[in-house]
Specification:
Elements: E1 4-9, H1 19-33, E2 37-42, H2 63-74, E3 77-83, H3 91-100, E4 107-108, E5 117-118, E6 124-130, H4 135-140, H5 145-155, E7 163-168, H6 176-192
Parallel strand pairs: 1-2, 1-3, 3-6, 6-7
Antiparallel strand pairs: 4-5
Helix pairs in contact: 1-6
Length: 194
């Protein structure tokens, strides 16, 4: 049975290709080779603004966000890719999730004060994060708190599980050969839709 994959490209600099873009393309190629249907959302090309009023969470989003919601809802598997900035996701990635997951799209409040309804149950996810420091250092020394926030408080609270992660560290020392090996691994993940 064919699966639907939605790749959320979170590099804020959408005008110039970066490693994150190559990772997204490699995952898409792998998924397509397994007959998956693939859609992509490039956060760096969206005109996002910050939500400041709590009432904004209950208002309907604009057309580009409605389109992103449709792509996410149609997907069986989400892939979120971003560079590590100041230990966590770039602000524009958080703004994207705030915009997209509002208006009871991902989480609907229980009228009786119980646990919220998780509207994205049945979906799985892979988070791919690039960084200058070694991936093991981010994981073991810093607790990977910025990624855990996305895993648990955003995706997990919405019902997405399991959420797996790939930490790509040491970008400053990455040779073309290492980059190609990384992209081969990402294509393999895409082919397995893992």
């Amino acid at each position: 049975m064919a699966r639907n994959i939605c790749i959320i490209q979170g590099h804020p600099h959408g005008q110039v290709p970066h490693l994150c873009h190559a990772i997204a393309d490699a995952y898409a190629e792998g998924a397509a080779s397994a007959d998956a249907s693939v859609s992509q959302i490039d956060i760096g090309t969206l005109n996002l603004w910050l939500l400041r009023d709590p009432a904004d969470f209950d208002s309907s989003p604009h057309a580009p966000i409605l389109k992103a919601q449709s792509q996410i809802m149609a997907a069986d598997h989400l892939v979120v890719i971003f560079p590590l900035w100041l230990g966590t996701m770039p602000a524009v990635v958080k703004a994207f999730f705030e915009q997209t997951f509002r208006h009871s799209f991902a989480i609907a409040q229980d009228q009786h004060g119980g646990f919220p309804k998780q509207n994205l149950r049945g979906k799985t996810a892979r988070i791919v994060v690039t960084m200058g420091m070694p991936g093991f250092a981010y994981r073991w020394m810093f607790g990977a708190h910025g990624v855990r926030c996305l895993e648990r408080s955003i995706l997990g609270m919405s019902g997405v599980r399991p959420v797996r992660r790939t930490l790509v560290g040491g970008l400053g020392a990455m040779t073309p050969q290492k980059a190609e090996e990384l992209l081969r691994q990402i294509r393999s993940l895409g082919h397995r839709m893992a």
